[in-house]
Amino acid sequence: FKSQHRPTCNIPPGVNPEAYQWFQSVDTDHSGSITLKELRQALVNSNWSAFNDETCLMMINMFDKTRSGRMDLFGFSALWDFMQQWRALFQQYDRDRSGCISGQELHQALAQMGYNLSPQFTETLVGRFSVRGGRPGMQLDRFIQVCTQLQSMTQAFRERDTALAGNIRMSYEDFLTSAITRLM
Amino acid sequence: QATSLKHQKFNNLASIQLLRYLICVFLCRVDKDRSGVISDSELQQALSNGTHPPVSPLTTSCSLSAMFDRENKGGVNFNEFAGVWKYITDWQNIFRTYDRDNSGFIDKNELKQALTGFGYRLSDQFYGTLIEKFDRQRKGQVAFDDFIQCCIVLQRLTDVFRRYDTDQDGWIQVSYEQYLSMVFNVV
Question: Domain EF-hand spans what residues (chain B) (predicted)?
Answer without folding.
Answer: 86-121, 152-187
